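re: the backbone from monday

yeah here it is again, tokenized this time
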């Protein structure tokens, strides 16, 4: 038994050792990529931003798999893009590429024969082509508008053959292009949500205005009202609070269930609401994200469950923690 345990421990050590070596090798490649970025990056971004058409990403084998992800990242962050398989391009899919497009062609060696028809098509139609390769002097590099050079640092694979470090660097370079294009286009969280309506991403990017209660559903009384009226409004609206507004309809306070418990006395219903309310309550903008509303409720230190939604100091809505749960953001 002890021998078997020692063997397992030895195997785990070797596994972790190789894992760390792989990660370190890929980090080393990324460090080289980071320090070798040059003016061609800005030129590539200029081409991407200036195009009147789409970004066409292409590549063969593992480069193609990475290219699909790069195209998907572009598309989800405001740059219209799709992937064209180079072999399929030679059998009719070249027709998917218009003269207004820009092409990103990926090949670590720069000598992928399958890209030749796309290269000739780009030349013939004067379509800008950005090459991602380690070798600017390769067939791909020489026939491109510009080259984004990958580090020639070998692979993390122990045989030095399987695409590992090179595909990681390509993926990161694609992310760099997509994120820089987001910055250039001023791509916002609202824009992002429009492209991600489903799942958790869609829910956390919902706006407060999408889920707030409005109009007659908002529990409000004037600051001159008595607590008897405030209690009736709280009971009717069933949100566990009532907002207090001044003569200009500006929100100046809130009364919650907690305020009622702290002020409980036989004379409570005859008091003015201004005597019981908490002044300057936490509020939120209608354009804020629902996830921001959840964070505010959780981080005020008072365990609040409602936020009045304010525009120009006036309450235009109210959002409850249950609304945030309905949105999937809590």
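seq for it, each position gets an aa:
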């Amino acid at each position: 038994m002890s021998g078997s345990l020692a063997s397992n421990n030895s195997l785990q050590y070797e596994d972790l050792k190789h894992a760390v070596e792989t990660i370190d090798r890929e980090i080393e490649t990324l460090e080289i990529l980071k320090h070798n970025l040059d003016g061609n990056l800005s030129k590539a971004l200029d081409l991407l931003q200036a195009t009147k058409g789409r970004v066409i990403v292409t590549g063969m084998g593992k480069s193609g798999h990475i290219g699909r992800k790069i195209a998907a990242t572009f598309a989800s962050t405001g740059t219209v893009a799709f992937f064209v398989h180079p072999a399929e391009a030679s059998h009719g899919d070249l027709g998917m590429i218009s003269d207004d497009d820009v092409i990103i062609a990926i090949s670590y060696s720069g000598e992928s024969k399958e890209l030749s028809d796309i290269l000739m098509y780009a030349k013939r139609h004067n379509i800008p082509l950005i090459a991602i390769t380690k070798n600017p002097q390769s067939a791909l590099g020489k026939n491109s508008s510009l080259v984004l050079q990958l580090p020639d640092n070998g692979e993390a694979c122990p045989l030095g053959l399987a695409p590992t470090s090179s595909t990681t660097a390509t993926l990161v370079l694609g992310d760099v292009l997509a994120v820089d294009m987001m910055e250039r286009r001023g791509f916002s969280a609202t824009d992002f949500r429009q492209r991600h309506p489903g799942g958790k991403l869609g829910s956390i990017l919902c706006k407060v205005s999408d889920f707030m209660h409005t109009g007659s559903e908002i529990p409000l009384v004037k600051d001159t009202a008595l607590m008897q009226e405030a209690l009736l409004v709280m009971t009717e609206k069933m949100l566990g609070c009532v907002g207090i507004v001044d003569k200009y309809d500006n929100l100046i306070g809130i009364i919650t269930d907690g305020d009622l418990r702290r002020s409980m006395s036989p004379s409570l219903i005859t008091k003015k609401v201004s005597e019981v309310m908490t002044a300057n309550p936490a509020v939120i903008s209608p354009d804020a994200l629902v996830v921001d509303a959840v964070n505010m409720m959780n981080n005020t230190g008072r365990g609040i469950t409602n936020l009045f939604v304010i525009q120009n100091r006036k309450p235009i809505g109210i959002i409850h923690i249950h609304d945030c749960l309905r949105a999937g953001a809590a």
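Residues 89 and 95 are 8 Å apart (CA to CA). The mean pLDDT is 89.
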